[in-house]
Write a structure and sequence with these properties.
By secondary structure, the protein is α+β, with helices and mostly antiparallel strands. 21% of the residues lie in helices and 38% in strands. The chain contains 3 helices and 11 strands. Helix 2 runs antiparallel to helix 3.
């Protein structure tokens, strides 16, 4: 019998706007046995999302985007964040389709080959967001400029930088968002193997 159980006693929608906030009353089993008392917890509801690290193995460059982020406004000097392409999965879309779409919309890039890195929660302490992280092979030779959709009020600056420079930016604290940190560290580990696979025109292994 599974000794890890929970019961939802009540659910209320606290706010619904650009995102949705729900309040749950619930209880769960305890490691030492028995049940917790009823707990009230807020849940930031966000649909499943995709992030994709765009990488050119020929030029050894990654594509970074920079945009304003409301989550950083309490530290105003950090309100513009360096990130990688990402977006929400809309109804009827697959994660792979979103990766191709967001690469075009946010960075003006066409993905030539796509591999999945990992799926994970971003902030399970209070958010339902579930990310599928990809690495996409691109031609970065003409990457740059301002991109994004006007109807979504996106204002995104796009640059291609050498991998060593991107990794140094991470080390120097210039990249502060968790998803690009994870993606760049993954590429640091797998870069030589990935480059040899892609440059040889071979199918990339499962990671």
């Amino acid at each position: 019998m599974n000794d890890k159980q929970f019961q939802i006693l009540d659910t209320q929608v606290v706010y619904e706007g650009f995102f949705r906030l729900e309040q749950y009353t619930l209880k769960h089993t305890l490691f030492n046995g028995g049940w917790s008392p009823p707990l009230k917890r807020e849940l930031f509801r966000r649909g499943n999302c995709v992030a994709v690290l765009l990488y050119d193995p020929n030029r050894d460059e990654v594509v970074l985007i920079e945009q304003f982020r409301v989550g950083a406004v309490l530290q105003p000097e950090r309100a513009w964040q360096l990130e990688i392409v990402a977006g929400a999965i809309e109804e009827g879309e697959t994660a792979e389709e979103v990766a191709y779409r967001e690469a075009r919309e946010e960075a003006g890039c066409e993905i030539l080959e796509l591999i999945e890195i990992k799926q994970f929660f971003t902030t399970p302490g209070g958010s339902s967001e579930w990310i599928t992280l990809f690495c996409g092979r691109v031609d970065s030779s003409r990457v740059g400029g301002i991109h994004g959709l006007d109807e979504e009020d996106e204002d995104i600056r796009v640059t291609a930088v050498k991998f060593d420079e991107a990794f140094q930016m991470l080390e120097d604290g210039k990249i502060e968002s968790g998803i690009p940190i994870l993606a760049i560290q993954w590429l640091y580990i797998h870069r030589e193997q990935l480059r040899s696979q892609w440059l040889a025109g071979l199918n990339s292994p499962a990671w």
